[in-house]
Amino acid sequence: MNEEEIVNPIVIHTHLLQKFMRHGKDYANLLALYSFYLYEAKKQETNQPLVTDEFTRKGMNWALDRVKKTKRILKEMKVIGMIQKQKYSYVRLFFIYTKKKICEILGKIEENSKEEVLSEVKKEVKKELKKQEKSLFEKTLIAEKIPQKRIDEIRKNILSIKTLPTYRFNTQVLASWIVYCEKSHIKYNTKHIENWLKKLDKRTSIEQKKAIYYAINKQWKDFYLIEVKNSKYHHFLGKSLMIEKYYKNLLDLKKHKEMFVYVFENIRFLSKYSPDILFEKYS
Fold it and tell me: Do 118 and 196 belong to one domain?
């Protein structure tokens, strides 16, 4: 049997579906009404379709109270907005995929499974990050007048760690700690380095930097990160945002002066807003 071509698809992102699911018994109503608004938006070729409550009631075959209640929840979720022009009521839809984007999505699904795409993206991101971080690591040591011969020895020790590829850490921050140990004549070996990597692994750069700089200021021989359960930022890792575009899977969170640096799989950007504000509004 030949599959029918999808001529005019309506796309709702999985993150939006998850937000709907959090509303329990209202999930089906939210999905149905939002789909109705999307359909009208496509038909009217605008992201602000003219859809009065009475028009929606007839089109959905719902009671008016049901329409108003469901629309109110969508508005509170910041999925839609309301625009009143004289006696006409328009619904503004914030998240609409363009025809080009829909074609890209359908093409990706046809060519690759979700897991394959995710795996390839992760590989490419890690490769790119490693290229950047390696140069930062060496530059940090050189800037602090660590002899090149010693830098080569340190790199050799780090690269000898078999589990190194499994760790995700900020190598510039690690380099700062190693510089401190070198200048303070703190003895360390490969086992110490691996232990440091375990502590830094998959923690935000903000927390890594804070822990190491605090230990340096206290002139300690080791550093300690706050427990994950007490972390202010750790629970944001792996989450995604939908603002003007889709920001996929937060990999890291850094600070540059007074700005937050958000590192996602597909993009990085600076914002004055903290993650609790951004993710509350756009996740």
Answer: yes
Q: Judge if 116 and 167 occupy the same domain.
A: yes
* Cα 41 from Cα 91, distance rounded (Å): 9
The two tokens of residue 165 are 């590829």
Tell me: do 248 and 268 sit in the same domain: yes
211 and 267 share one domain:
no
Cβ atoms 8, 90 nearer than 8 A: no
pLDDT at 44 over 60: yes
Cα-Cα-Cα-Cα dihedral of 27, 28, 30, 32, to 10°? Answer: 160
**Amino acid, single-letter form, for residue 27:** Y
Token output for 143: 């800037």
pLDDT, tens digit, for every residue of 87-127? Answer: 667 787 765 544 554 444 444 444 444 455 455 544 544 55
Structural domain including 130 reads 112-224
What is the model's pTM? 0.53
Nearest of 190, 214, 212, 215 to residue 203 by alpha carbon: 212
Q: What is the CA radius of gyration of the chain?
A: 25
- Do 208 and 236 have their domain in common? no
C-alpha–C-alpha distance, residues 207 and 213, integer Å: 10
Q: How far is CA 35 from CA 50, 112, 118, 148, in A?
A: 15, 26, 27, 62
d(C-alpha 31, C-alpha 33), whole Å? 6
Whether 8 maps to a domain, the answer reads no
Q: Give the containing element (helix H, strand E) for 15.
A: helix 14-21
Q: What is the pLDDT of residues 253-273, one digit of tens each?
A: 999 888 999 999 888 999 999
What mean pLDDT, rounded, does the chain reach?
81
